[in-house]
Design goal:
- The protein has a domain of 87 residues: Roll (Nuclear Transport Factor 2, Chain: A).
- 32% of the residues lie in helices and 39% in strands.
- It is built from two helices and five strands; from the N terminus they run H-E-H-E-E-E-E.
- The chain has a five-stranded antiparallel beta sheet with strand order 1-2-3-4-5.
Length: 125
């Protein structure tokens, strides 16, 4: 009797194994990361974070057919998931005026997957 391989089961197995490995490594690590919790990004000018911010503007401009220009990231948080979520407040230029936008990006670098999952105008209080 031949066993048939279902790609969905294979993906599920990889996700479960990744989560289990993550938690087993976190037990020995002195700086424990909470899986799923949002953590502040301390270096908003880190090239990787800036790359994510520019990705946000490029993707939004493609989707909404706008011409927003990335200026800077003024606030950011990251979340450890399968990959990483970034929640960024980005300052961008729209013609001659500056606006802030809140964006969420899911990044899975080892698969070369990056997706803008949320984008909205944001009023800084």
């Amino acid at each position: 009797m031949a066993i048939k391989f279902n790609p969905i089961h294979g993906t599920l197995l990889v996700v479960i194994a990744t989560i289990l490995l993550y938690f087993s490594d976190a037990q020995d690590c002195p700086k424990k990361v909470t899986f799923g919790g949002w953590k502040p990004i301390t270096n908003l000018t880190d090239p990787e974070v800036v790359e994510i911010g520019k990705f946000v503007m490029d993707e939004h401009n493609k989707e909404a057919k706008t011409k927003l220009e990335f200026q800077e990231i003024i606030k950011g948080e990251s979340q450890a998931v399968v990959g990483k979520n970034y929640r960024l407040v980005i300052n961008a230029k729209d013609c001659d005026s500056l606006h802030n936008y809140l964006a969420v990006v899911w990044d899975l670098p080892w698969q070369k997957i990056r997706k803008l999952t949320s984008f909205e105008e944001y009023n800084v209080a």
